[in-house]
Specification:
Elements: H1 3-9, H2 23-34, E1 46-50, H3 52-71, H4 79-88, E2 91-101, H5 109-135, E3 139-143, H6 150-156, E4 161-170
The structure holds flavin mononucleotide.
Flavin mononucleotide (FMN) binds next to strand 3.
């Protein structure tokens, strides 16, 4: 599969089969993540892989946190649906920035700049994961709804640094068509 084809064919997958993902496949996906470019080659990523035996606990933590927000009248957006996906996926990989403490970016301009640079590097790593997963026949969903349970998940995963996102992985049980995109000319100015 060539790169442009992989980019064009990738979809967010929200229905997974029950099949487990072999550890070797997960390692290939994580290797691809670590091959991403990064500002000053800092490689500002740390991955925590939640496998099947811990999945129910992860889902419970998410559901309880979302319910608490809902009780307070906070709009919990798409998080209910995202948790359903996480409950189905055999694996969810949490991505942390080990250089950033909770709330980093508030301590000075250097820190704010590094948050931006590191954020780009981590985004590249996550995208590599998604494309590698696809090449290996594994579906993926990039997830930020984990922020509804930010503190609870960090505590549960024993992480004191900044959680950036999660990626659920599994064998796809759906083949969605392409989601709409703005046209290149709509988002590009040529100078
Ligand atoms: C930073 C980021 C956060 C996302 N968070 C979620 C999420 O929490 N739940 C979800 O269902 N999809 C999430 N998505 C997936 C987007 O909804 C999806 O990429 C977009 O609708 C385009 O669809 P496609 O990925 O199939 O092209 C996220 C994507 C990105 C890049």
């Amino acid at each position: 599969m060539n790169t442009l084809h992989a980019i064009a064919q990738r979809r967010s997958i929200r229905k997974f089969k029950a099949d487990a993902i072999p550890e070797e496949t997960l390692r290939q996906i994580l290797l691809a993540a670590t091959q991403a470019p990064s500002g000053k080659n800092k490689q500002p990523w740390h991955f925590v892989v939640v496998r099947e035996d811990k999945r129910a606990e992860m889902v419970r933590i998410m559901r309880e946190a979302i319910a608490r927000f809902a009780e307070q009248g906070v709009d919990t957006g798409s998080s209910k649906w995202t948790v359903k996906v996480m409950a189905q996926a055999p694996v969810t990989v949490f991505v942390f920035n080990p250089y950033a403490e909770h709330g980093a970016g508030e301590t000075g301009p250097d820190s704010a700049v590094w948050d931006i640079v590191d954020g780009q590097s981590i985004g590249a790593a996550i995208q590599n994961m998604l494309l590698a997963a696809q090449e290996l026949g594994v579906g993926s969903l990039w997830i930020c709804d984990v922020f509804y349970a930010y503190k609870e998940l960090c505590a549960w995963l024993c992480q004191t640094t900044q959680m950036i996102a999660a990626v659920s992985l599994g064998i796809p049980d759906e083949a969605p068509g392409p989601r709409p995109r703005k046209a290149v000319d709509e988002v590009t100015a040529w100078f």
